[in-house]
Specification:
By secondary structure, the protein is α/β, with parallel strands linked by helices. The chain contains two helices and four strands, in the order E-H-E-H-E-E. It has a four-stranded mixed β-sheet, with helices on one face. The chain is elongated, with a radius of gyration of 16 Å. The protein starts with 7 loop residues before the first strand and ends with a strand.
Length: about 110
């Protein structure tokens, strides 16, 4: 394990073309440093569901449907990493605003 990189690698991902390349890089870094690979995926929320001025309100049923879609997307993304030869220690789903890019970051 690398003291410089820590014990975990966090892959923030989406389902874009670049995400597959980022996943391969994350697998390589995790394996070469003996670090655990963690994934996070953010399922976008519609503007009217987000808290803020002018929001018409929270719709629990709609939120649950969006969250279920996010879980399914995350399951597929984890599968892609496994197919690429990696092992995902944990996968995390969040909902909210999304930056449109994949990136690789070592975490402690």
């Amino acid at each position: 394990m690398s003291e410089l990189l820590g014990t975990k690698v966090l892959l923030a991902t989406d389902s874009s073309e670049g995400a597959e390349l980022a996943a391969r890089a994350a697998v390589d870094v995790a394996e070469s440093t003996g670090s655990a690979l963690h994934m996070v995926y953010v399922e976008p929320l519609a503007d009217f569901i987000k808290n803020g001025d002018g929001a018409p309100g929270y719709d629990h049923q709609l939120y649950n449907m969006i969250e279920a879609e996010g879980q399914e997307t995350l399951r597929k993304l984890v599968w892609r990493v496994k197919v690429a030869g990696g092992t995902v220690a944990d996968a995390h789903l969040r909902t909210g605003a999304v930056l449109r890019r994949s990136w690789l970051s070592p975490i402690s």
